[in-house]
Amino acid sequence: MESSKKVGVTEVVLRDGIQSLLATRVPLRDLVSILPALDRVGYWSLETWGGATYDACIRYLNEDPWERLRTFQSLLTKTPQQMLIRGQNLVGYKHYSNAVVTKFLERSAENGIEIFRTFDALNDFNNIEFSIKEVKRIGKHAQGTIAYTTSPVHDLNTWLDLARKIEDAGADSLAIKDMAGLLRPFDAFNLVKELKESLSIPIHMQTHATTGMSTATNMKAIEAGIDNIDTSISSLSMTYGHSATETMLAIFEGQDRHIDLDLDALDEVSIFFKDIREKYSEFEGGLKGVDSTMLVKQVPGGMLSNLESQLKANKQEDKIDLVKDEIPKVRKDFGYPPLVTPASQIIGAQALLNVMSSRRYENLSNESLNLILGRYGQLPGEIDSALLAQAESIGIEEMNLDESELDKMENELKALCKDNNLPDISKNLEMLLTYIMFPNIAFAFFKGLDI
Predict the structure, then answer these.
(1) CA distances (Å), 394 to each of 104, 199, 343, in order?
(2) What is the chain's Cα-based Rg?
(3) Given pLDDT bands bounded at 50, 70 and 90, which one contains residue 94?
(4) CA–CA distance from 41 to each of 265, 268, 275, 429 (Å)?
(5) Residue 377 region, left (φ>0) first, then alpha (ψ -120 to 50), else beta?
(6) Taking a C-beta distance cutoff of 8 angstroms, is the pair 257, 2 a contact?
(7) What pTM does this model have?
(8) In contact, 128 and 383? CB cutoff 8 Å
(9) 356-411 confidence digits (pLDDT tens)
(10) pLDDT over 70 (residue 88)
(11) In Å, what is the CA distance from 399 to each residue of 93, 230, 306, 334, 395?
């Protein structure tokens, strides 16, 4: 497919920028005043929702994620809103039934989402096909996604095969999601070039700055003909985040392929988020430059900081290096899944269990069992035979994917409301969806609302 000379930009500061650098701890009230300026910049889209945003709103911010989305929608009159979903996982941490996926996508669209970027942690096409087709059915932009990783079982053909399936499913565009900053610049050039020759839909890319390669990777991808890149405003960019929007704009100024954005509006946005970064600096990770750990061991920074806090809670912080060494070993034993949610959390937790136990795999978490036994989807490589036999001997109840899930959870929420003398909110579809995604924390959140 021929590329436009103009390269589109998806600004991620409102979602992945804040998530990567400030643990998604910035409340809506601190973002509303900058939305008109963001709307003036001229972005292809603004990523505003999905990922960890939904979880963080109810867990930490005491904020309704749906209200956040509606507020963005009311103030963004020119720029489409984009969200990230994990296929059948949506924004939760397990597979949900098709009925739940449908309702979630419909409500998200009705509340303002125009572009749905959907990926699967295992790159199992079966886990994203339904979402892609449902997004198309409701008349919104379906973006199917490659969760990029490197391993002995992943190569260029892996990505080309998945990309063709995504296009054949009716996706409007394809995204390369490089969550750990592993995509090297020259590999990006070859990947984008091959994708452009194989597909007729536009190609987008998101790459993180953690390993220090993101700006060069974006540059080579643009040279290869990519249609759109993700960036984050300069004052909330780099380290665990993304290349700076203004940097990419400057690199291609005056070139045949160029980025066309409003510099004055960008300056206003940058000054604003400089203050936000300072205000919420307590949530920023310790990375000051580049983290080469990811290149060697593929351990994402957010995963490490989470494990460090768990070790501190157990007064075992001296074991962090052992956990770092264990993660790639567990990943190999599990068949080389990409280290992205929820696989990254499962493998990180299992590595921690292995280090804390007297022998490896003495204790297998339920999530590890589900992953090994294929309940999350097809793993890319071969699972260690002894580990698979151990998992099969333990067995575990099937993850609930029956189509009555919606009705069952509605009845459960109705009973909870009655037992706690609260108004029945089970008929409110947005609250019901929140309860389905996060049953352990949603009800505590509901009790704090004025309902």
Answers:
(1) 34, 44, 20
(2) 21
(3) confident
(4) 6, 10, 19, 34
(5) left
(6) no
(7) 0.94
(8) no
(9) 999 999 999 999 999 999 999 999 999 999 999 999 999 776 665 667 889 999 99
(10) yes
(11) 12, 34, 26, 19, 12
Q: Which residue has the tokens 């597979």?
A: 95
Classify residue 51 as left (phi > 0), alpha (psi -120 to 50) or beta.
Answer: left
Q: Give pLDDT tens digits for 294-351.
A: 887 777 766 776 777 778 878 888 888 899 899 999 999 999 999 988 899 899 999 9
CB 139 within 8 A of CB 169: no
Q: Which residue has the tokens 């045949």?
A: 256
d(CA 174, CA 202): 6
Tokens 């079966």 belong to which residue?
Answer: 126
Three-class DSSP labels, the chain: CCCCCECEEEECHHHHHHHHHHCCCCCHHHCHHHHHHHHHCCCCEEEEEECCHHHHHHHCCCCCHHHHHHHHHHHCCCCCEEEEECHHHCCCCCCCCHHHHHHHHHHHHHCCEEEEEECCCCCCCHHHHHHHHHHHHCCCEEEEEEECCCECCECHHHHHHHHHHHHHCCCCEEEEEECCCCCCHHHHHHHHHHHHHHCCCCEEEEEECCCCCHHHHHHHHHHCCCCEEEEECHHHCCCCCECEHHHHHHHCCCCCCECCCCHHHHHHHHHHHHHHHHHCHHHCCCCCCCCCHHHHHCCCHHHHHHHHHHHHHCCCHHHHHHHHHHHHHHHHHCCCCCCCCCHHHHHHHHHHHHHHCCCCCCCCCHHHHHHHCCCCCCCCCCCCHHHHHHHHHHCCCCCCCCCCHHHHHHHHHHHHHHHCCCCCCCCCHHHHHHHHHCHHHHHHHHHCCCC
Distance of alpha carbon 57 from its chain centroid, rounded? 15
HSE-CB at 392 with a 13 A cutoff on CA atoms is 8
